[in-house]
Hints:
Elements: H1 10-22, H2 28-47, E1 52-61, H3 68-75, E2 80-87, E3 93-102, H4 103-116, E4 119-126
Antiparallel strand pairs: 1-3, 1-4, 2-3
Amino acid sequence: xxxxxxxxxxxxxASLERIxxxxxxxxxxxxxxxxxxxxxxxxxxxxxxxxxxxxxxVIVHSTHDDQWVGMMQHKYEKIIRTQLHSHLxxxxxxxxxxxxxxxxxxxxxxxxxxxxxKADYVKFVRSR
Length: 128
């Protein structure tokens, strides 16, 4: 097994400890491994999409003053059928978008959201 060293801010350490406690894991290393497995499963779900796709995209972010979501909505307006914006506690915002798209466009949108790195939570729920 390879050993790596990483620097994490205090809030990320707190999140890691919450994951560790929630999953009843004894060490931070195993919590990191579990988090990677969960992220990989989420990534695989997105990569397995093909053809035309419809569903709901949920985003929670804490950057109300930052216009990145609005820019994303304009860039991908052809695939957004309905959108809802709501203010949450702690100056966070909730975005809910009903999407209808080809899988390639959705994958591009999701990758861009992750690349921007300003979302606290991102989840696409595909209609079956």
